[in-house]
Amino acid sequence: MRKVWILALALMAGLMFSCSKEEGEPTDMGYDYFPLEQGSYIIYTVESIIWDDNDQTIDTTNYRVKMQIDTTFTDNLGRLSYRWLRYIQADTATRWTYDHTFALTRTAERMESVEGNNRFVRLAFPVKTAISWDVNAFNTEDALQAKYIDVGFSKSIGGKTFDNCALVLLEDNSSLINEYYQEEVYARGIGMIRRYDRHVDKKFTGEITKGYQHTYSILTYGKN
Fold this sequence. Notes:
By secondary structure, this protein is mostly beta strands. 10% of the residues lie in helices and 59% in strands. The chain is built from one helix and twelve strands; from the N terminus they run αββββββββββββ. Strands 6-5-4-3-2-1-12-11-10-9-8-7 form a twelve-stranded antiparallel beta sheet, with no helix packed on it.
């Protein structure tokens, strides 16, 4: 009987130690779903489709976009921030053309980007399924609730497979006469690997009258 009690006490001690160890482990915040490292870049292929109801045309354009993290600076709140440069390439025969500079700031709770005069919340931390946030919390635009739909899955794009991805649903508001849908996919250690944004108005027959659809798909990434 004494041996049984000793064994039981040993098991209980082991369980308590295990629980204590798990409780003491730091939370995985998922900061590396949007790494901030000077010189790192991602190149996307972009397909843009515009439906124009004025002249009844459909305009499809394909080009490339390069997003590169540049130098650091201190923002007006005293926080470490990064310049984020966008370049555009019409086709492989032309050079990259500088287009715009954005700003990135990561806090313990979120990833912010400043685009033009607006500040957006691109990600919330920790990166976990069902966590939601207002993309427009720090600007004057209408609230836009984003949410992690899936975390930790694999995604194949252009023949390449990316592990440990997170799917962000930004908008899903469709009816018989419109389709408003936005989603983004992020991969650990890389950043955003896909963006799909479709805003179209339709007739009851399903024919699109006006709107746009933009699809960003990662082509390559690296560091200069």
